[in-house]
Amino acid sequence: MRALLRRVSLAVVACALAAAGLPNAQATAASPVALGPVTSPPSHVADVLSTEAWPGETGSSGAGPGKGRTTSGPSDERPTAAFVTLITGDRVRLVTRDGHTIAVPMPGPGREGIQFAIHQRGERIEVVPSDAAPFLLQGKLDRRLFQVTDLVAAGYDDAAMPRLPVIVQYAPGQRSVPSPRTVRAGHTLASVRATAYTVRKTDAGGFWRWLAGPSAGQPGRTTPSGGAFESGVAKVWLDGPVHASLDQSVPQTKAPQAWELGFTGKGVTVAILDSGIDNDHPDLQGAVVAERNFITGGDEARDGLGHGTHVAGIVTGSGAASGGRYRGMAPDAVLLDGKVLDDEGTGTESSLIAGMEWAAAQDARIVNMSISTWNASDGTDPVSLALNRLSTDDGPLFVVAAGNNGSSPFSVGSPGAADAALTVGAVDSEGRTAEFSSRGPRAGDVALKPDIAAPGVGIVSARATGTEPEEPVGEHYARMSGTSMAAPHVAGAAALLAQLRPTWTPAQLKAVLTSTASPTPGEGVFDQGAGQLDAARAVTQRVNAEQANLSMFMRWPHQAPRTQTLTYRNTSATDVTLTLQLTVTDAEGEPAPDGLVTLDRTTLVVPARGRAQVEVTVDPRKGEAGSYYGGRITAQGSGDVVIQTPLAVSIERESYDLTLRILDRNGELVERVDEAFLVPPFVADPESGRIFDLRAGEEGLVARVPKGTYTFSTILVTRHGPIKPPSFTHLADPIIAVAKDVTITLDARAAERVQATVEARDARTEATTFGTTELLGGYPSTTFVEVPGAQRSPLYALATEPVTDRTYLFVVYQVMATDDATYELVVGEQGRVPDDPTYAVRNADLFRDEATFARPGADIDWWGSWTRFAELPGGTTVGVGRSYDVPVPGSRTHLASARFDSDVLLWSADFDAGPSAVDIAYTEFDLARSHAPGSRVRRAYGRAAFRPQGDGASIEGLTSLWFTPGNPSPGQGPFSVWSLNGVEGRVTLARDGEVIAESADPFFLDTEVPLDGRHTYVVELTATQDVPWSRYATSVDARWTFPMVGPVDDVRLPLLNVAATGDFDLTGRAPAGEPFVLELLPLPAEDVGQVTSVTLDVSYDDGETWRQASVTRTPAGRWRATVTHPDNPGGFVSLRLRAHDNRGHRVQWTSIRAYGLVGGES
């Protein structure tokens, strides 16, 4: 199954993301009803169609015309689902539909009593098990390990990766800690005192107990003990993925002038940490002196991607294959080839760090890393930390791409965010900053980044043999763009300078390269740093600054100026007089206020072979609080001496300390952030959505915040001794006004009990999720915790004042069970946490949801999970839900809330099935829809007959078509997904008889060929399926014909689909030797008209011969076919259907083995 949120990066940059988890149904699964096959069920066709099976239809459910609420509108994607396993062994199910993602946590084996904190900030979802929360708050766990949406986006979901990669960092003085036998050790990372491991996800629970202690996962304990965290492990990081980010560009850097002076990089070793190098390329023959493969091990670092070869050519290509036209920056430098990316352009942080350490040990003078992350970094990530530690006086200079995250500020990624990195942005041939180039300042401390810029647009360099670049330039070259191409220009120039100055430190090389850069007029320091690379000036100019840049942060209150010293060094034999000029602008490029930044002199004499200094003073009282500024100090001397020093100034806005005195239910003051919380406490600005961290203070927890209004929420755990279970209290204050230092007291003893009840006296609580959700900066933010009912922990909530300026919901989602049904109660209040959070729910407030679950064959083992989710009102796109293990075949009944407060709830119910929970073969997605109180809904999942289904959309010029070769009938919604394994076929799209797009993937076709009106389109699908977990739809073909009139933009494509179903048993079989009625059901779709003709043929010999069935239309407008099955138990029935509507839409499909036959004794 395709992974959820899979992103394909066209920019050649690196990514360091996050890890995640998946849903548990066992902890909440009620006793199933009607176990075993159903041989004579009621008419499932009538059940589904008469009880809100499709959007816009109403039946006996009581929703009534116009009362039902469903999701609608065109979408360029079908819903997708993914499972991910957390480091704790717990799992999380993620479903994305209509652009929004939901997460349902599920405890791992032996962890059924664990609680989960669920945070959502915009589209990022974080799921933290309760026994991991203390270690996360202590800084011992990388937060990315729990950011589940990022983890799936990085390709770390269970379907894509069976092992979880981590970096285990040891405490100071500790070199290693004995690890479990179930983990696989990878690179040893001495620079950060760490070892990389991969943990088999099925063994993650054992690895977690090794880290946290044997008590991990046991109910009632907040902080486990006795594990490796107490015996030498300082922190566990996610080993995040990294991805890959000259005839005109080299002269643009003025490298040829440096060559004329004899500086060609001779004697200098440059390490290329990338996808490998094609050593046989004519431009690179003899250049590589050592190579190492950090992906698979060994000494061969072949480049199957082409990125590393292209980068190497920019650094030191000879131009042999082009007559010298495409010559690199330092043609006589030699290379170390460290393969840290695989042939798909992906690696891990540990492979990159190992490559960095190897390059330093091999005495590389320069290390080029054309790698960056999609996410911005503050420079404290493991790769940045390793870079800083390796940048010793006798170590290499690391030249790093800034990243291709675009023109937004604060977008420079790792490792370019590292202090010691020479971080490179990209410019075009006119010296303008490329649109894709990441901008500064650095996230977190607003420091100066990037440091310098170089050509990175349309760069022609070496092409690796056997690769197929998007823009080939003959046999030996390719044209690429990215900061990946800009960085090796600077690395090559650094090699020229290192040839001139073989004893200089990395910091000295970096300072000279930035000092001699040439700014492009109109481009700011947060776009280009010091300016464009000037290789010739770098090797000729003898006066330079000793600092690469200056960065100053000014804390409120702004009472006094602050001064830094800028030092110039003169390596020539004569004194040099410099004239100093200062230019400073705000973030919009407008001149900064006079007096904000001043120099203590405008001229300066730098003595021969000596130094001179200028004092740079920032007076924050002259600037605007809450703003940042950037500028350059330009020093000009006689001749062509020009020195650039970029600077960054950040002035804290009017800010104060907000102190939170939090008292637990025992009356004890919570003194540390890592104490007593399931949900990490935070303070947020509701208007901007900005989150402020809390730290320990003298009187409580303190956040430094600007003047304004803030919201706070958390879940507090209070322990009541070794016998009683802990209690959980939701504490919140959504309206905190801060205009001076403020102290707020939140006393858990004042909170009231949270509870929901039903009329059934024998109902027992299985689990409760409670908390708040609100809009912060226009994006949803949630603070939920899920507590198993078996733990019997009391739940409390502290009342708040009403919130009237934004969406604010207090939510209780309580799952209860009797022997006959499961209750799902979604109750609460909009606008505040109430004084009395108890709720008595009547049966009349609920709707009845009955589901049957079928499997595709009687002789297969089949596991099933039913995930139900209620979307909350208020525009948050947030909801609550749970997964339930279900018998397959079997059935289940739920009674669920129809409304929340006074608004309707949208419920979706998806079914996952397969040989096991870790081998999911099939997912059937339901539409989200509302149900009236007192209504009855019947759902049939996985039911025969199995036949092809198609859908599609045209969104912003991209046409996407998606298919299910063996879709059940009728299906609960328009989407189901089968495993891609074992299915082969192709799809074509034709316009007026001419094929305009095709795909060898029978599930998907994407094309940028625009669809326009007044044409007839035909989609054809063929597919075969040979899998052990299904007996049906072994071969299918389909043809959809549809006319389009008018503009085709942001529309669902009108593909007509007709299902065939009947009274099959729950293994997809019908009675042999008897007449059988097939219901032929046109499925609702946008712009599809009324079906006017349906024909059906049947075959009992896998399509060798066909016979026409009798098809009639009922007075109610339904189509029905009657067939007489042969007396052949164990045989199969194939179907061939044709239909068209009154708007010119047609469909014809064939399904070999659409269903099976069973004798009367079965």
UniProtKB/TrEMBL annotation:
PROSITE patterns: SUBTILASE, SUBTILASE_ASP, SUBTILASE_HIS, SUBTILASE_SER. The active site is at residues 274, 307, 484. Belongs to the peptidase S8 family. This is Subtilase family protein. It comes from the Bacteria. Residues 1-25 form the signal peptide. The keyword Protease applies. GO terms for biological process: proteolysis. Residues 265-523 form the Peptidase S8/S53 domain. Residues 53-80 are annotated as: Disordered. The keyword Cell membrane does not apply. GO terms for molecular function: serine-type endopeptidase activity. Keywords: Hydrolase, Protease, Serine protease, Signal.
